[in-house]
Design goal:
Number of helices: 5
CATH architecture: Orthogonal Bundle
Structural class: mainly alpha
CATH topology: Cytochrome Bc1 Complex, Chain D, domain 2
Radius of gyration: 24 Å
Strand content: under 5%
Order of helices and strands: HEHHHHE
Helix content: 25-40%
Shape: elongated
Number of strands: 2
Largest sheet: 2 strands, parallel
Distance between the termini: 83 Å
Length: about 190
């Protein structure tokens, strides 16, 4: 007795589907949740900002998807170990806060030698960090080879903090003249 051709094809399709369904169940599954909303309070200390900045780099900011801290070898983007010490000398005339701000708001404006461009703009979708969240990330980056000095009242060329007084560009942290300031956005509560 011969089995019709269409029945053999149907049996092959069912067997193949069952096999790949079984193999698919053997692969570990990871549930990815959307990032938690970050609530920034107006009276946060620099230490609080450092903690939140580290959480943002791992979570919502997705920084450690491509960057590493303390690793060497073939890397997609530069390792961030000691980045605060290097930031003051990367671009002449920019202090570390201005360098970090430029690197986050305009990541293709300066490419570390040996690496290709490709870092997304952090304050726009799909990542979309707020200006205050970016200040927290800068505070965390300052701890990698330096001392954090950023507060929520810190201004830089891309953001003018409410109530900050403008000064000469590249001046003291917290007093840079905004050239492309954006209004404060995101949940900042007193």
């Amino acid at each position: 007795m011969t089995v019709p051709h269409s029945v053999r094809i149907a049996a092959l399709v069912l067997a193949t589907t069952a096999f790949y369904g079984y193999v698919g169940q053997l692969v570990p599954q990871k549930e990815v949740q959307p990032p938690q909303e970050t609530v920034l309070k107006a009276d946060m200390t620099t230490a609080d900002m450092v903690k939140i900045g580290g959480e943002l780099m791992v979570g919502k900011g997705l920084c450690l998807t491509c960057h590493t801290i303390g690793k060497s070898g073939a890397l997609r983007f530069p390792d961030l170990e000691g980045v605060a010490a290097r930031a003051t000398t990367r671009i002449p005339g920019l202090n570390e806060i201005e360098y970090f701000a430029k690197s986050l708001y305009e990541p293709d404006s300066f490419i570390v030698p040996g690496f290709n461009p490709g870092m997304p703009v952090i304050n726009k979708p799909p990542i979309g960090l707020t200006d205050q969240e970016i200040l927290c990330v800068i505070a965390f980056l300052q701890t990698l080879g330096g001392t954090p000095t950023v507060t929520l009242q810190t201004s830089h060329a891309y953001y003018k903090a409410p109530g900050a007084t403008p000064a000469a560009p590249g001046g003291a942290p917290g007093n840079a003249t905004p050239t492309n300031a954006t209004p404060a956005k995101g949940p900042v509560t007193p």
